[in-house]
Structure formats: structure tokens, C-alpha cells
From TrEMBL:
InterPro entries in UniProt: Helitron_helicase-like
Classification via Pfam families: Helitron_like_N (PF14214)
Keyword annotations: ATP-binding, Helicase, Hydrolase, Nucleotide-binding
Name under which the protein is recorded: ATP-dependent DNA helicase
């Protein structure tokens, strides 16, 4: 059996380490409070203004990587300095790439003051803002935080599987937020009859049932798809911690031998955007506080290394102990 060690960035053993770090945080600090997914917006002015005539954003992956790195650093500074959700006890994030190459980062936050179910609506919103009151935020949410539409409106949407949306959209109307046991609460989504907003996207009427949960401050600051979820149930914690550190996409194939190196090389699916990120040596993971990994073993189960110099003497000493 050939093993791909944990020192190799991106391998299965490498991705297993931050997962265990996340579970260490859970054992020490309890469940995380917020699960945030921040996706790069290729229409950011910082990207568009640097394109040459006739170029698209996907032609300049170096620009996208550098701009997104700056945005992630800015977001983590706002989050960890207590500017938005209060003081943060610990955090971790992982940068990933979808198969079409668009960067996104998964973030877990543990807050000093836990968010109560009654205050979820203050932190997270799943409704369209009023265009008359806040036209800027309305346009941001309308263009970045609407799912699909899919279902009977668009059966060929990428999220569709067996004629159903894998993301469970469209959601149901709700007059108030309800906490459940499946990990995420059911956020308030008021119907048009109860004051909900309706907009039009691609000649389709879209209401609050299609809105992805967001935080108004983050959306207004970064003008991007930023999904903010409240971690409600302990049952979902292990799934969330593994999801955050699941690694990048891979191709599907089959192998007969137990060669992890060959399996990784054959199944690796790497986009040009990820390649640029790795070439620039930008971090894939970040977490605080640091977790120290201890090499433990059973009694008399420690590893022993033989060299040309100490091998004869070591063998003789072992034989003496056995006799």
C-alpha cells in the first residue's frame, strides 16, 4: 500500500487534519454559531477594471485570485474583530473551487455571546429588502442572493436531480422564524399578502421563497453571494465540520490497487483558478486558535527507525531483550 502523507497539501490525509481541528473546537467551545459561504463575484470593479479590451474575468485567473484573497482577508478582519457579530472565540475557513473554477470560502465562527433563537432575524435575513427604503441593498440581493429559479420554471437548472431541487428550493412562506432539529432554522419568509416583496428576474416573478439567507451588512459590504446560516442543532455539527473541509472536486473512477498517490493523481480535478491560487502560495486553510497535533501510540507501539549505522547494534539489543 502506498500512502499519500498528510504533509501533501490537498490530499485526503491533509484534509482530515483540519476536520479533526474543527471537532476539537466543538469539544472545547461547543457547536459553532454561524456557517458562512462567501463566493467570489467576477463582476467586482476591482476585477473588471483590470481586464484588457475584449477579455472576460475567466481569462485572468491571476486577477481573480489576488482580488478574492484581499476580500477574504477583509471579511475575516471584520468577522474576527467583532465588528459584525460580536467577539469571536475561534474561527476556521477553507478555500474551495467549484468545477467551473469559481472560488468560494467556507467559514465557521464560534461567538463569545451565543445567538439566541429570538435574535436570529436580527443577524440573518431570507427576504427581499424594500427597494423604496434601501434600493442599493435591494439590487445586491436581487442579483446575488436569489436561487435559480429552478423547478418547473427551469427544469434544466444545475441544482435539479430527478425533477427536484437538491437545495430544497423554493422554500415555504413563514410569518416568523422557527428553529428545527435538522441543523438549520426555518427562516422568516413573508408572502406578498403579509408584506413580502416580489421582484422579476428573467421574466419570472420571484418572491421570498427563492432568497438565500444572508446578512445585510456583509452583502452590502462585499456585493457578492454570501450565504449565512445559523447552526442550530448539535446533530448537524459533524456534517458541517466535514463539509467545510471536504476538499476540492475530483473525477470519478475506479482503481484496483491501494495506491493513494496514483488514486489522487488520476482523480484530481484542478481548475486554472485553483492552479493560480496554489502557485501564488495563498493559504487554503486558516484557523484560530492553533491546534497542536500529538503523535500518540499504544504501549510499545512507537515507530523505530533503523539506519546503516545503528541497525546491527539495535537488532542485537532487541534480541537480548527477547531472551
Amino acid at each position: 500500500m502506498v500512502v499519500l502523507p498528510s504533509s501533501f497539501t490537498g490530499g485526503s490525509h491533509y484534509m482530515h487534519k483540519p476536520t479533526q481541528d474543527a471537532m476539537t473546537y466543538v469539544r472545547h467551545f461547543g457547536r459553532p454559531d454561524l456557517f458562512i459561504t462567501f463566493t467570489c463575484n467576477p463582476k467586482w470593479p476591482e476585477i473588471v477594471d483590470l481586464l484588457n479590451q475584449g477579455q472576460k474575468s475567466h481569462d485572468r485567473h491571476g486577477i481573480i485570485a489576488r482580488v478574492f484573497r484581499v476580500k477574504v482577508k477583509h471579511m475575516m478582519k471584520l468577522l474576527t474583530k467583532g465588528c459584525i457579530f460580536g467577539n469571536v472565540r475561534c474561527h476556521m475557513y477553507t478555500v474551495e473551487w467549484q468545477k467551473h473554477g469559481l472560488l468560494h470560502v467556507h467559514i465557521l465562527l464560534w461567538l463569545e455571546i451565543k445567538i439566541s433563537p429570538e435574535s436570529i432575524d436580527v443577524v440573518i435575513c431570507a427576504e427581499l429588502p424594500d427597494s423604496n427604503i434601501d434600493p442599493a441593498l435591494y439590487e445586491i440581493i436581487r442579483t446575488t442572493m436569489i436561487h435559480g429559479p429552478c423547478g418547473h420554471i427551469n427544469k434544466s437548472s444545475p441544482c435539479m436531480l430527478n425533477s427536484k431541487c437538491t437545495k430544497k428550493y423554493r422554500r415555504c412562506f413563514r410569518k416568523e422564524t422557527q428553529t428545527g432539529e435538522d441543523g438549520y432554522p426555518q427562516y422568516r419568509r413573508r408572502s406578498p399578502e403579509n408584506g413580502g416583496i416580489v421582484t422579476q428576474i428573467k421574466e419570472n416573478n420571484v418572491d421570498n421563497r427563492w432568497v438565500v439567507p444572508y446578512n445585510p451588512v456583509l452583502s452590502r459590504t462585499f456585493n457578492a453571494h454570501i450565504n449565512v446560516e445559523f447552526c442550530n442543532s448539535v446533530k448537524s455539527i459533524k456534517y458541517i465540520c466535514k463539509y467545510v473541509n471536504k476538499g476540492t472536486d475530483q473525477a470519478t473512477f475506479g482503481v484496483k490497487d491501494l495506491d493513494e498517490v496514483t488514486r489522487y493523481e488520476s482523480g484530481r480535478y484542478i481548475s486554472s483558478s485553483e492552479a493560480v491560487w496554489r502557485i501564488l502560495c495563498f493559504p487554503i486553510h486558516d484557523r484560530f486558535p492553533p491546534v497542536m497535533h500529538l503523535s500518540v501510540h499504544l504501549e510499545n507501539g512507537q515507530r523505530i527507525y533503523f539506519t546503516e549505522d545503528n541497525a546491527p547494534s539495535t537488532k542485537s539489543s532487541i534480541l537480548k531483550k527477547l531472551h
